[in-house]
């Protein structure tokens, strides 16, 4: 009954407003924090291809639990991707509450942002746009990684990027995720006052500078990484080897030694 009264009047029987919106805001922040930090780790792991194919291969095997199982189990990566996907969907659902529901609402927000001339309010539009784009782009990537976790590695990933045409999607996803992620983490820090210190205005200025540096850093790293996968994928396709998996240098040397030849 009290739900019915609150549903119609927007207040409980005791005249109090629901705490649910505040709880949902908290959930949005928590899932956003997780995803933002996860993406920093993700970009660093994926970019190991810039160091060497062997390094990227060993990182992949590490996430497959090779320190416990001999060959590694891709199902572990599928499990991690499923958990990330659920958090991603929960975060998107929370974010949807902040999007304008019709043109009138959009117009009011735009006029408000322009009138205030406040940079942080304008950042909201970037968040809404990149967030909307990620609904689609992020879901495609997560679903593929979740269902094809056995096809992650120096050659398998490069084949997916180049021969399976993922690179156009990755260009867009990379742009969306890097802007959305760093702006999101900046807004979280400002919203909850994590680094306010004695002079919140001065710390906000500093946070803004860090935000810019991090965005540029991860964009440069991301595009260099993507270019590396594209180049490896192109060479692999030109050699007619699409689908062939990478054999780490250590295994090739072992094979040659066992066959009486020293590498
Ligand atoms: C557990 C979850 C995830 C795993 C295991 C994973 C794994 C990978 C791997 C292996 C690549 C290299 C290319 C390939 O193999 O296709 C990649 C690229 C990429 N991923 Fe993820 N990913 C995950 C979640 C996400 C999420 C949540 C996002 C953003 C919404 C994302 C955005 C990207 C982008 C933008 C690239 C291209 C990066 C570049 O080449 O610089 N990933 N991911």
Automatic annotation (TrEMBL):
Binding-site residues, heme b:
42, 91, 141, 180
Q: What keywords does the record list, in alphabetical order?
A: Cell membrane, Electron transport, Heme, Iron, Membrane, Metal-binding, Transmembrane, Transmembrane helix, Transport, Tricarboxylic acid cycle
Q: Is this entry keyworded rRNA-binding?
A: no
InterPro entries per the record? Fum_red_B_TM, SQR/QFR_C/D, SuccDH_FuR_B_TM-su
Gene Ontology terms, MF aspect: metal ion binding
Q: Where in the cell is it found?
A: Cell inner membrane; Membrane
Give the source's domain of life in one word: Bacteria
Which CDD domains did the record assign? QFR_TypeB_TM (cd00581)
**Gene Ontology CC: one annotated term:** plasma membrane
Q: Which SUPFAM superfamilies does its entry note? A: Fumarate reductase respiratory complex transmembrane subunits (SSF81343)
Q: Give TM regions.
A: 26-52, 72-94, 123-145, 165-188, 209-230
Q: What does this protein do?
A: The fumarate reductase enzyme complex is required for fumarate respiration. This subunit anchors the complex in the membrane and binds a diheme cytochrome b.
Record protein name field:
Fumarate reductase cytochrome b subunit
Protein species of origin: Arcobacter nitrofigilis (strain ATCC 33309 / DSM 7299 / CCUG 15893 / LMG 7604 / NCTC 12251 / CI)
